[in-house]
Amino acid sequence: MNPEQQSNSMTLGRRHFLRNLGLVGGAVSIAGTGMALSGCQPSSNTTNNTSASNTANAANAELGTKDSDKNANPKHAGSDANSSKHGFADAKYEFYGEHQAGITTPSQRQIYFLVMDLHTNDVEAVKQMFQDWTAFAAKLTQGNNIKDYGTNPYVPPTDTGEADNLGAYGLTLTFGVSPSFLTKLGLSDKLPKEFKDLPAFPRDQIRGNLSGGDICIQACAEDAQVAFHAVRQLVRQARSTITMRWSQSGFVGYDTGNETPRNLFGFKDGTANQETLKAADKFLWANEPNWLKGGTYLVARVIQMHLETWDRTSLKGQEETFGRHRTTGAAIGKQAEFDSFDVNEKATNGKAVIPEISHMGLSKRTGNQILRRSYSYSSGIDAKTGQFDAGLLFISFQKSPEQFITIQNALGRVDKMNEYITHIGSGLFACFGGVKPGEYLGQALFEG
Ligand code: HEM
Question: pTM for this structure?
Answer without folding.
Answer: 0.88
